[in-house]
Amino acid sequence: MKNTKPKLAVNVVIGSLIVASAFYLTRTMIVAPQPINFEGPAERLKNGAPDFEVARIARDETRNNPLTLKSSSRPLTLVNFWATWCEPCVKEWPSIIAMAKALGPEKVRVIAISVDSEEEVIRPFLEKFKDISEAPIEIGWDPTMVTATQWGTEKIPETYVLNRKFQLLSKVIDAQHWTSDSVLKLLNEWAQNDGH
Prior knowledge:
By secondary structure, this protein is an alpha/beta fold. Helices cover 32% and strands 19% of the residues. The protein starts with a helix and ends with a helix.
């Protein structure tokens, strides 16, 4: 009688690898932002995103006026909540910068709000990204997460895509590959159609 135990063990290992690979691929798959489903925390933004006022982190040592949502309107505004200690946030930054540069200030305004507890860690972190000054990105600071909570943020990074009237088009939870063809195509379409 043949010993089937080694063959069974090999099949179990192969099956486990297949399942693990499928799980990994679904976790890292690039998915374009989806039109919003107003359920759960997103429901509070159904009638438009509320304005906010957070500390502005200037690219030099000077402190500018507070940063607000509705002080400037573009076809698209992306509000991104992040932190320097958040590994997915760190990985997402180059993609956000490249997307903002690709769309340009005539189409998009990115408001990146740090929820770090200490302001002094933010500027050195941003200095790692030399091309950030070429992108339409403004940096805010919300150490007590008042704005993040008001908006229904559940985890970071989390990004809200708004139209010119500050109506929510999409809420993206977790890091996004913002320069993938599908994402840039959708953002360009939304910008050209004024978020419709």
